[in-house]
Design a protein that fits this description.
There is one protein chain. The chain has one domain: HAD superfamily/HAD-like (Rossmann fold, 3-Layer(aba) Sandwich). The chain is globular and about 45 Å long. The chain is α/β, with parallel strands linked by helices. Strands 4-3-2-1-5-6-7 form a seven-stranded mixed beta sheet, with helices on both faces. The chain is built from nine helices and seven strands. A hairpin with a 2-residue loop joins strand 3 and strand 4.
């Protein structure tokens, strides 16, 4: 067995889920500035995540789901996942974003599992609180090591694909480290760099 782990926002999906969620509240630009700084590694990921989610307080859950079920996937996402699965890979998503988006994407794109965060809600509206699997800078690396142990997969049999600073921790535990349309801070940790929005380009680097 081999393992491929993808980031979701700006990797499998063309954009940042939380920026899309902030739009109906008129806060997209404010949230996007924080997101951009976090992905460049200029802010603590946990602090930036909780700050941004607080700004979503009051947004209706049905609106969250509507937005998350209509996010634009990156060109080549489905084809790439299908090809990897045909080559014997388990394909998993680690996202600092939200289950509303990654759970729906799993149904569409066909990856095997998703690990992400959960937006807390009461009476049909977001409370501004968040919890889950991917809250910290170290979360993706920590989860990758646990998944490798569970599946009996080595770093040499592992491919990781991401774009931002919070992907660095999983890059430390994989032999093939693909920076996809990525921030400079992640490119430094990669051994494959792709700057074109076409995920199928990663297939030439994965055996």
């Amino acid at each position: 067995m081999k393992l491929a782990v993808f980031d979701f926002d700006s990797t499998l999906m063309d954009g940042e889920t939380i920026d899309f969620l902030a739009e109906p509240l008129g806060l997209k630009e404010k949230v996007a500035v924080i997101t951009e700084r976090a992905m460049r590694g200029e802010l603590d990921f946990f602090e930036s995540l909780t700050t941004r989610v607080q700004l979503l307080e009051g947004l209706e859950v049905k609106k969250v789901d509507e937005i998350c079920h209509n996010l634009p996937f990156m060109p080549g996402a489905k084809e790439t996942i299908d090809a990897l699965k045909n080559r014997g890979f388990r394909v998993v998503v680690f996202s600092g974003g939200f289950r509303n988006a990654t759970g729906h994407a799993r149904d569409i794109l066909g990856f095997d599992a998703d690990f992400s965060n959960v937006l807390h809600a009461k009476e049909g509206r977001l409370t501004g609180l968040v919890g889950g699997d991917m809250m910290f800078d170290f979360s993706k690396g920590d989860m990758l090591q646990r998944l490798q142990a569970l599946l009996d997969v080595t770093p040499e049999e592992t491919v990781v694909v991401g774009d931002g600073a919070n992907d660095r921790s999983m890059f430390a535990h994989a032999a093939t480290r693909i920076a996809f349309c990525a921030k400079e801070i992640l490119k430094k940790e990669a051994n494959v760099v792709i700057d074109t929005k076409d995920l199928t380009q990663i297939l030439t680097h994965v055996s």
